[in-house]
Sequence to fold (226 residues):
Amino acid sequence: EAQVTQNPRYLITVTGKKLTVTCSQNMNHEYMSWYRQDPGLGLRQIYYSMNVEVTDKGDVPEGYKVSRKEKRNFPLILESPSPNQTSLYFCASSVKGSRDTQYFGPGTRLTVL
Amino acid sequence: GESVGLHLPTLSVQEGDNSIINCAYSNSASDYFIWYKQESGKGPQFIIDIRSNMDKRQGQRVTVLLNKTVKHLSLQIAATQPGDSAVYFCAETSYSSASKIIFGSGTRLSIRP
Fold:
């Protein structure tokens, strides 16, 4: 089954404790992207990747890092999480870019205390 | 900055009626628009898209209208069903920034029996 998976689905952590949210797709897509979703603000793009070893900032990249060492994986790293990073995070992938249909993962709800 | 917004945050319609969800965009360079549906607890799902060289596109029970003169986008759902209950997002992107996508804040559609 073609899908985008994220882990963990739920995470409660404390300020400053490094964490990684994994994202994996099995569709051989070149483009992958991370979004955060907050009430009243919709989805905001954090980082995106056009292909392996090619990543770029979205609209809200501060406090986040990503890597794209393999085509299928695009982990989101929070080196020192803060409470303002409490949010619902979605990973998405598409064939080539944002102009192709994006397939979203199920989301990761992160709470930073 | 550029923004994509929605006229109404919530919309309640009678089952069987048609629904119209509106979206305003401000980036005149945007030339590709997408509607996504997000059900509770799930990631956004592609519904329909339209390119700027079109003013109307139809899918199964859904129609998207694009008015470039007033920078307005709408999603029409015919014969609304309980399964249509969700939050609907419009999104925009442009050829010049093909890697980035901007989402609106969303409209919640609820169906009255």
Q: What stands out?
A: Chain B has a mean pLDDT of 88. The longest strand of chain B covers residues 86-93. The interface with chain A takes residues 32, 34, 41-46, 49, 89, 91, 93, 95, 98-106 of chain B (CB under 8 Å). Chain B has no helices and eleven strands.
